[in-house]
Amino acid sequence: MTESLRIIVGSKNPVKISAARSIFHLFYPNIAIDCQGVNAPSDVPDQPIGEDETRIGAQNRVLHCQQHYQADFYVAMEGGAEQFSYGPATFAYVVIADNQQRAIGRSSNLPLPQSIYNALLQGKELGDVMDNAFNTTNIKQQGGAIGLLTNHHATRESTYTQALTLAMAPFLHPDLYSKEV
């Protein structure tokens, strides 16, 4: 193991960078973590709709990072929304990769008011809709819709952190994940 780990996050959003930094500190407490955010295109709409579009956005960000930067790990998080059979919700896909493997994870769902989801279908971004509904400014780089709708008992960062923590499993136990069934 190296004395330090270089992590490239496919976003300049401080919430996403902080979430990535915290999980690598969790799993590698005795190693210096160099975690930097970079602009990485998702190649999906600014507000992804549907699970596939959201997942592809995170995968595209990681792929861009792998093609343009040298690091030990590459991380991306992409928030999206979908109208499920039980109602609209927002969620995130996360992707973690090194130079040998890639893991994809997904957060839990946050139910959205139908009026908020309808605004997303009109091309608006969730952060902007939430700023308007709650009279906040740039909430997407703070607690996010999750913080506002849960009265700050959960945050955008806490949701990313949980999803990233789970997505680390293949890197912690590569022998188990590389076995063929």
Structural commentary:
- This protein has 181 residues and is α/β, with parallel strands linked by helices.
- Helix content is 41%, strand content 23%.
- The protein has eight helices and six strands; from the N terminus they run βαβαββββαααααα.
- It has helices at 14-27, 51-68, 114-121, 126-134, 144-149, 156-167, 169-172, 174-177, and strands at residues 4-9, 32-37, 73-84, 87-97, 102-106, 110-111.
- Strands 1, 2, 3, 4, 5 and 6 form a six-stranded mixed β-sheet that branches.
- Helix 1 (14-27) crosses helix 6.
- The longest helix has 18 residues, at 51-68.
- It is globular.
SSE order and pairing:
Blueprint: E1 4-9, H1 14-27, E2 32-37, H2 51-68, E3 73-84, E4 87-97, E5 102-106, E6 110-111, H3 114-121, H4 126-134, H5 144-149, H6 156-167, H7 169-172, H8 174-177
Parallel strand pairs: 1-2, 1-3
Antiparallel strand pairs: 3-4, 4-5, 4-6
Helix pairs in contact: 1-6
Salient structural properties:
181 residues, alpha/beta
Give the helix/strand class.
alpha/beta
Biggest sheet statistics: 6 strands, mixed
Instruction: Sketch the topology as an H/E string, one letter per element.
Output: EHEHEEEEHHHHHH
Helix proportion range: 40-55%
Count helical runs. Answer: 8
User: Which stretches are poorly predicted, pLDDT < 50 over at least 5 residues?
Assistant: none
Content of β-strand = 15-25%
Q: Roughly how many Å apart are the termini? A: 29 Å
* Overall mean confidence score, pLDDT: 94
Radius of gyration computed on alpha carbons: 16 Å
How many β-strand stretches? 6
Query: What global shape is seen?
Result: globular
